[in-house]
Every structure is written in structure tokens, then in C-alpha cells.
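Batch manifest, entry 17 of 40.
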Amino acid sequence: MKMFSKPYALRLVSLFMLAFLSFSLFGCSGDDTATPDESTAPVPKYEIGVIKSDSTDNSKNILEGFEKHLKEAGYTEGENISIKYYESQEEKPDFNALAKQAAGDNPDLIFTVGSNATKAAKKATAEIPIIFAGVSDPIGAGLVKSTEKPDGNITGVSSFTPVFEQLEFIKELIPEAKKISVLYKETAENSILISSLVKEECEDFSLEYKAFAVKDKDKLSDELKKALKDCQVLYLPEDDLTKDSTKDILKEADNKKVPVFSSNTSLVKSGALATCVPDYKEIGARASEMALAVLNGTKNIKEMSVLYPDKCIKVVNTDTLKKFSIKISDEEKNIISV
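Output type: C-alpha cells
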């Protein structure tokens, strides 16, 4: 861990200068004509390398929360902290190459956003501390063996999808709903996990669950028709198939008069009815707290448990609400409209 000290120039010209000692401790010189030494320029105390898996709103909010908390904690870029972002302009970035570059620069800590960036960072170094955010299932992704005691150089804040809260919100908006279909790409790990969690939680809400796994875009139309045949809600986990086919899915769902509930805000912005998601800015802030604890030496990263979001945010598409004649109670305050 790099530690830099700031040199202090104390020039006591006379006994009276003792009265100004407190000023001297902050780098002030008793000689007004003295030329500032270049070595007195502020230098970073800590160096952080940042790698993110994508440029979605969620990732941007995580980074915003991370950076904001650093500032609130008294860390200013160029003075006592230096943050370097490792990014690629390629459509499909080589995260292993970015992680190797970051590890090669030997920062005090690497902060990653999303599974792809975090997996690459873990592969690149077993020495540099890694704090992650925006990873739904750290164990399933092979990042940690235990969320309670990771026992390695990596831990962080999960963005675990709040499936229970999402189903609760569905019943709040559509109390008459009895059947729910889940449509997802069959090879998308995160979507498989979310679908299984929806299945587990449906019983608590008296919802009949059916899942429709799609191999590729060519098979989407057939599976979508099956999914919409007998349900009151279509649930979409976000993966590259559902994201790329959002317009087609929503168009078909509208024709069948079936509202679409999403696991992600971006699909709601595209026309899905609603979602309930973690507060990603809070996730970033909590990851920042963990990073500072490691950097300041107040906690051992091997003993830091993976954290989970405390807050959920309800998001609705106002146009879609009107389309399905769904009204929100005036008492409901924790809802964002897009």
C-alpha cells in the first residue's frame, strides 16, 4: 500500500514566529520570499484502478455513489487519492487485458463494477485488494466461496435482484394477477438464477409460475407466444436476448394485453410496466466505505463479508400505467416514474 508524506518547511526566523507555528504545520513558510519547492505539491495518498463491465445506468449510478462517498469522506482527486479508469472503446471489451493492465500498474486497490470486470480482476491478481459492486451472485460467479468470509483478496457489495419485493410490487399494481410467465435466455446465468428465485417466491403471493427458456433469437417468437398464452404478467430478467428484443416482446405483449414486469430499470424505460431494483448509488457508496476501510487498514479484506443492498426503489413507466389503466396510491411515495 503506497503511503506518501507531505514535507513541511518550518523556518523559525525569531522567537515571535512561534506564534505562527500552527500555520507552518500546514506548509506555510516564515520567509515570504521563499520559492515553493516542487516537492510540496500535493501527491496522491492512495491509487485506485476502476474497471466496469458496461455503461448501463446501473453502472453509472454505482460509480456516482462510489465517487460521491469518497469526496464526502475527504478524498479529493489529485490531492490524497488518484483514480484511474481502465476502459476500452471496443464493442466487446477484452476485460482480461484491461485487468492485466490495471494489475500491472500496481494500484493500492482495484474497484470493479459488474461480473465480467470482477472475474477478470480476480484472474489478474491475487495480491491487490479488489472491491466489487453490481454482482448479483458472487458465489455463482466463482468470485468467493463464502459471502460471510470470502477469505481472499476480494469482496464487495452484491446487487442481488430483490425478487420478493418485485413480486410484492406486482401484486400491488395488479392484485388480480394469478399467473406469471418468465421469459429468458437459457444460457444467461443471471437470468437462470432470477427465474429460479421467482419460482421459489411465487407461492407466497399465490402466483402460478411458468418458465420459458429461449435458446436464441430465432426461437423467441414461438416461446413468447407460449408465455403470453395464459398469464396475467410477463416477467423479463434482463439478458442480451431480452434486451435486444425488448421492442418485439413489448409489442406482442401489448397485443395480448399482458403487462410486462422487468428485473431492470432499462427495460421499464423502453416500455415495460415496472420494476423494483436496488438503490445502485447506495451500492456504490457502501463499496466506497469498504474500499476506504481496506486502504486505511481498519479492516482485513479477508474477513470482510459481502454486503447486500438495504434499500429498494420502485420504478414505473407512466405511459404504460395509463395504457393498462393502473393507478398508484397517493400514499405510495417511494416510486420513480420514467
